Amino acid sequence: MNRELGGPKPLPVILEPVPDELLSSWIARHAGFYGVSPLTMLRHAIPEAKSLRLIDTKLGPTDAGHIARLFRIQPSAILEMTTSGFPSSAARLVAPCAIQCCFACAEQNRGQGATTAVQRSWTEGWRITCPVCGLRQRDIRDATSAPIGPLSPFEGLWKDALHGERLIDHALRGSAVGWASPIDIVRLLLVRRCPKPFNHEVSIDHSTILGAVVQGFDECVAQQGFPRPTIARPILPVGLRIALLAGISIIHQEGPKLISELQNQTLGAHYTRFASIGAGMSLARSSPLQLN
Ligand SMILES: [Zn+2]
Q: What is the rounded distance in angstroms from the CA atom of residue 61 to the CA atom of residue 46?
């Protein structure tokens, strides 16, 4: 197969993608079917491809067209199996591999013979529910045989968290989401906070702006032995992610006044960083579609 004469020759047998399937997963399943390595399968469409994983996050329209021809599907459907269309500001919220899963969908996929299928949403580090069936996502590391995962200390914030998840979803689809980008709100929430000197409940190393918005967040992260989440490392286990998503919803509803109050809880370089993200939000207010 080569693409010199108008692109790759389409495969004779095409496996049905499972709902929300990640492109690399679909290609890998075809590779298994045809008895070649996943990269070899990808190179039928893109001979110079170096990594299967990169196509999930950095696929351009030309390469999407080549893959689409190989699999006899529309290029737009290929792009929808990736996170390539997300704004660059959201790149750090996408994991390089599956970090969570939906048990119900995994079971369904197994029943259809797609045991190894990976859904795109399983790499999306802001999700707490499955976009296919609506059920709660579970961390891969908790994916034992137990049907229900551990409860989060933030279960009481579930409704707010669902609102935060929706806001991010809408923003990533390019819809206007109000006065500020939820991705920017995530960045603000993960700026380091300087707790008041008399507050010794939590180490200063673990203090985040989110801890000022959602009581108990910093303590919980410290107790569970996680490093403090940062703008560069924003993906949390699902149980803690509930707090982050709820924080987005709270700030979104409270508006810019809360941002000004929170800024006073930062110092030095963290203050500057907070102010810079906040200033970007002011600009975005006059242009709601701007997400960076
Ligand atoms: Zn599901």
A: 12
